[in-house]
Amino acid sequence: xxxxxxxxxxxxxxxxxxxxxxxxxxxxxxxxxxxxxxxxxxxxxxxxxxxxxxxxxxxxxxxxxxxxxxxxxxxxxxxxxxxxxxxxxxxxxxxxxxxxxxxxxxxxxxxxxxxxxxxxxxxxxxxxxxxxxxxxxxxxxxxxxxxxxxxxxxxxxxxxxxxxxxxxxxxxxxxxxxxxxxxxxxxxxxxxxxxxxxxxxxxxxxxxxxxxxxxxxxxxxxxxxxxxxxxxxxxxxxxxxxxxxxxxxxxxxxxxxxxxxxxxxxxxxxxxxxxxxxxxxxxxxxxxxxxxxxxxxxxxxxxxxxxxxxxxxx
Length: 314
Known about the structure:
mainly alpha, three-stranded mixed sheet
């Protein structure tokens, strides 16, 4: 694929991912835990999806949303982690232009879809706790279908311009990405064009999507907490908090790791350049591994569904 500069031309067929080249020892000690986390994430999410699909008692809106979250995690893991492990084990650093921009699209799109799914799940818990009598009429299969369409449409339309803008840039001098994955800012900085529009758009979209989702999620849980504290029935508050606890734990982890990632970029002169890269990689596998485990451990119906499937297969 030829790419041209105004003064000279250079042909690039792909990018090269410089993954922890400044800290080569990291590749050794990261490869085993990263591969184990990847296997755990894939196995746990696939198990959860199959359990919800095959177990009729789990064919309810809340579990449909859980299976959507697992599908998003599976795609995110498959998009990032196998390539990182291939670099660690076989030094397969090249990635084609089309594969790079496709990876960029999936990472931006599916991460924002995961955030939006958490928002819908927070609304589900809000209705369940604050409006229990109306829950069956509000949270229906039709509601879930509409929510899925909204999640797909909103996030695809708003994140698609990010890789499109990057793909339109001219890469005429360097093709070495100082990252383990095709993050937009890491790729666009290689361009000899003005990338201000690209960066401003990503910043606006990130705050508009993730920022608004997290704000609405915490507002929902503020209402839930107020409603729970007002419950008079003995044990009702503890049961309600237990129902929402696993969801809120995962949202906190999701938002916290994003916050740490942003802060390391802000103070990047005081930390190793590899730290943000490490956090970016881990953010694509640790939440994916935790989500199904936390829900599986804390949700009795899912545990029972998994046991039923194991008994059938046995």
